[in-house]
């Protein structure tokens, strides 16, 4: 595998108040602020499309950037296939949630609104998604699969299997598949069946009469959900490598065996994507958990929003399916391959060739934390963790130690996503069983994690923990844990963990996030105030350190932006750097525009959707936006404000989106120790502003261009640099 050359960022005096340089890759000259172009700004106000980029198109553009990773020939083959699967998963969620929501909001009495702007937007989204899906399958069929085959990994269609392989597949079909199939011939007694969201199905056109002399011409076959989608053939049937076939291919090649005495005229696999957003009237229900459990049972059968069929699906069958799902032709997606590309991730799991993957990476153990009691350490200093470059195990050890420490009297924690298996949750259960006061704020409405969270809530309650479900109508998205310990003299001391990511064992290995462990009296006490607010539903006290949504987070962000604008108007350097997953809130964007017009230099690192137009004269000429797509999912939220060399650094659970600022419980927290501020800047911001390998730069029209090293300039990859600096990276040459 080709590894980009990594050079260290220039040494910077980031925190020392003496220098006048901004803490990033370039120096900011001390000059008079540029005069605001009032005319241009006023003209821009006449049209939102002039001021803001389209959210849906920006979200699709993010998936084009992910797809570019699959196109990158310097990336190992299985990783390229993984990026294809990620695009498939992202598109699924885009249709299940975003497109479904837009359609629901614009449907009146069952009819879709004909508003020209809405119809134009739908058409643009449809065109882009069709092009994206087409490119996905072109990459799969023309590059990824042929190259995997040359490496000895064969995904065989029926026509590509030899006689011995076909015989084995037939036996597998008869033994494992056929007993689980239930073909449904459509007639008045057998109407079109309920089709589960994103499930694999087949539509079959038949000739001749059925066993009762009737001409039932259409049948539906549902693929069993309990069977794997990728099946490995025995090693002895694979010449020089490993051979696989898809469940869809096995059913395709034996579908005629299901209709004895009938002629199969044509058939196609198909898959329908449905509205999967759960809706519960939280103000009306008496028991949110019970109501949500009921909703989970119906999620699989929401309104259809997309239909995928095989590329060679006959037109009459495709039309029939569209009618059954009440879909217009523009929501039909014929694909040249499996209708659910995400299932190919099973192939990745099967293959054991290390040279087809990224070099192994392990977070480097933080030795000084292993030889001392964590509470003793925290009384001396805060601990800053940068995942996945540093181990999340430190956080697990923090909660585990608290659960077992006889001096700990209480543990409080928020749970948004934690997965089905979690050492953290087991530690909380242990603490409750040992008689400690355990309070867990479980967010039941965490999308696609509802079932896991309900299960954990039940286990925690049975162990004696106090479980609450946050605030009605507001998702609890803040990442907080609090330990209260009785120490010498009998007084209580608070220890806290605050993070930008989830308490999920899987995502902590693949998402970049920051976490802060602290015994700072002010911060830890305010974390406790947040918990009291969440459980007691009382008005929160005024907080000095934490910015809490939906009360103070947005006003504090606006205040900090305006402060930089004031500094710039007074002739001193104004500087803002922010890193997040999405930037969509109009109030924040307008504040950034105003600050730009006042001369503030602004760099935004926005991984996904961004509605801000950078580089527009008189509006945003001092704003640059970039997106970094790499091996790890960029997930940390960092807000930096120069503030006359005070260098204010905040980490947060919140993106700059309307939902985060006004419809969720979110927390932004300050990094106070100078050494840790410097670390956040030098690890979380500077490398990403220098990246010329995985970075994409946004222009004022909404287009992204990949940042490339200039002539004689060394390549610099932020994630590679951090892996080498903080983790343990094994170098390996590709075979």
Automatic annotation (TrEMBL):
EC annotation from Swiss-Prot or TrEMBL: 2.7.4.1
The keyword Phosphoprotein is assigned to this record: yes
Domain Polyphosphate kinase C-terminal per the UniProt entry, residue ranges: 373-539, 546-719
Annotated keywords: ATP-binding, Kinase, Magnesium, Metal-binding, Nucleotide-binding, Phosphoprotein, Transferase
Annotated positions binding Mg(2+): 417, 447
Enzyme class: transferase
Protein's UniProt keywords contain Transmembrane: no
Every Polyphosphate kinase N-terminal domain range: 52-155
Gene3D superfamilies: Endonuclease Chain A, Polyphosphate kinase middle domain, Polyphosphate kinase N-terminal domain
An example Gene Ontology molecular-function term: polyphosphate kinase activity
Catalytic residues in the record: 477 (phosphohistidine intermediate)
Domain Polyphosphate kinase middle residues, every copy: 165-347
Cofactor(s) in the UniProt record: Mg(2+)
Region listing for Disordered, in residue ranges: 1-41
Database matches in SUPFAM superfamilies: Phospholipase D/nuclease, PHP14-like, PPK N-terminal domain-like
Binding positions for ATP per the UniProt entry: 90, 511, 607, 635
CDD domains linked: PLDc_PaPPK1_C1_like, PLDc_PaPPK1_C2_like
The reaction(s) this protein catalyses: [phosphate](n) + ATP = [phosphate](n+1) + ADP
PTM: An intermediate of this reaction is the autophosphorylated ppk in which a phosphate is covalently linked to a histidine residue through a N-P bond.
Role played: Catalyzes the reversible transfer of the terminal phosphate of ATP to form a long-chain polyphosphate (polyP).
Family: Belongs to the polyphosphate kinase 1 (PPK1) family.
Database matches in NCBIfam families: poly_P_kin (TIGR03705), PRK05443.1-1 (NF003917), PRK05443.1-2 (NF003918), PRK05443.2-2 (NF003921)
Protein name: Polyphosphate kinase
Lineage: Bacteria, Pseudomonadati, Pseudomonadota, Betaproteobacteria, Burkholderiales
Gene designation per UniProt: ppk1
């Amino acid at each position: 595998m080709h590894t980009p050359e990594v050079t260290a960022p220039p040494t910077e005096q980031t925190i020392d108040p003496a220098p006048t340089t901004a803490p990033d890759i370039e120096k900011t000259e001390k000059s008079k602020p540029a005069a605001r172009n009032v005319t241009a700004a006023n003209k821009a106000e006449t049209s939102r499309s002039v001021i803001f980029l389209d959210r849906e198109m920006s979200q699709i553009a993010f998936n084009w950037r992910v797809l570019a990773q699959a196109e990158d020939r310097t990336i190992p083959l299985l990783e390229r296939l993984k990026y294809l699967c990620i695009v498939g998963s992202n598109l699924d969620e885009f249709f299940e949630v975003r497109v479904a929501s837009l359609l629901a909001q614009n449907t009146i009495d069952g009819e879709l609104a004909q508003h020209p702007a809405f119809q134009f937007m739908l058409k643009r989204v449809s065109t882009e998604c069709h092009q994206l899906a087409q490119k996905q399958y072109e990459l799969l069929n023309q590059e990824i699969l042929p190259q995997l085959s040359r490496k000895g990994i064969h995904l065989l269609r029926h026509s590509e299997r030899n006689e011995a392989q076909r015989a084995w597949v037939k036996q597998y079909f008869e033994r494992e598949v056929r007993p689980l199939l239930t073909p449904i011939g459509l007639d008045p007694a057998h109407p079109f069946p309920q089709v589960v969201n994103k499930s694999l199905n087949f539509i079959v056109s038949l000739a001749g009469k059925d066993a009762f002399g009737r001409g039932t011409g259409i049948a539906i076959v549902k693929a069993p959900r309990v069977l794997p989608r990728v099946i490995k053939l025995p090693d002895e049937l694979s010449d020089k490598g490993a051979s696989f076939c898809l469940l869809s291919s096995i059913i395709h090649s034996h579908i005629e065996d299901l209709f004895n005495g009938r002629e199969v005229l044509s058939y196609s696999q198909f898959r329908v994507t449905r509205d999967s957003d759960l809706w519960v009237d939280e103000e009306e229900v008496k028991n949110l958990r019970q109501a949500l459990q009921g909703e989970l049972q119906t999620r699989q059968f929401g309104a259809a929003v997309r239909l995928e069929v095989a590329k060679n699906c006959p037109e009459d069958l495709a039309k029939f399916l569209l009618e059954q799902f009440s879909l217009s032709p523009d929501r039909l997606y014929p694909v040249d391959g499996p209708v659910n590309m995400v299932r190919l991730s099973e192939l990745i799991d099967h293959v054991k060739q290390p040279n087809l993957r990224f070099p192994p990476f392990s977070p480097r153990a933080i030795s000084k934390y292993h030889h001392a009691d964590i509470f003793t350490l925290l009384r001396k200093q805060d601990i800053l963790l940068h995942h996945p470059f540093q181990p999340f195990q430190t956080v697990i050890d923090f909660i585990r130690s608290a659960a077992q420490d006889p001096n700990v009297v209480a543990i409080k924690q928020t749970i948004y996503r934690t997965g089905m298996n979690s050492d953290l949750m087991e530690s909380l259960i242990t603490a409750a069983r040992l008689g400690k006061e355990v309070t867990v704020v479980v967010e039941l409405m965490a999308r696609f994690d509802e079932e896991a969270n309900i299960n954990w809530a039940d286990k925690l309650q049975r162990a004696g923990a106090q479980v609450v479900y946050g605030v009605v109508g507001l998702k609890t998205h803040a990442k907080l844990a609090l330990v209260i310990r009785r120490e010498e003299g009998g007084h209580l001391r608070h220890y806290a963990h605050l993070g930008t990511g989830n308490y999920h064992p899987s995502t902590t290995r693949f998402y970049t996030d920051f976490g802060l462990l602290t015994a700072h009296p002010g911060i830890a006490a305010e974390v406790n105030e947040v918990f009291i607010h969440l459980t007691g539903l009382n008005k929160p006290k005024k907080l000095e350190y934490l910015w809490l949504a939906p009360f103070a987070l947005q006003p504090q962000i606006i205040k900090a932006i305006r402060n930089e604008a004031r500094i710039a108007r007074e002739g001193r350097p104004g500087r803002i750097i922010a890193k997040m997953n999405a930037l969509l809130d109009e109030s924040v964007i307008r504040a950034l525009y105003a600050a730009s017009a006042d001369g503030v230099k602004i760099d935004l690192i926005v991984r996904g959707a961004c509605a801000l137009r950078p580089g527009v004269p008189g509006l945003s000429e001092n704003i640059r936006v970039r997106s970094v797509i790499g091996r790890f999912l960029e997930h940390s939220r960092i807000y930096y404000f120069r503030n006359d060399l005070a260098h204010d650094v905040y980490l947060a659970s919140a993106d700059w989106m309307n939902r985060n600022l006004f419809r969720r419980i979110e927390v932004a927290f300050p990094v106070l120790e100078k050494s840790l501020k410097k670390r956040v800047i030098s690890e979380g911001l500077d490398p990403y502003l220098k990246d010329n390998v995985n970075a994409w730069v946004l222009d004022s029209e909404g287009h992204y261009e990949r940042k490339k090293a200039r002539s004689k300039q060394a390549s610099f990859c932020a994630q590679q640099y951090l892996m080498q600096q903080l983790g343990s990276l094994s170098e390996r040459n590709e075979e």
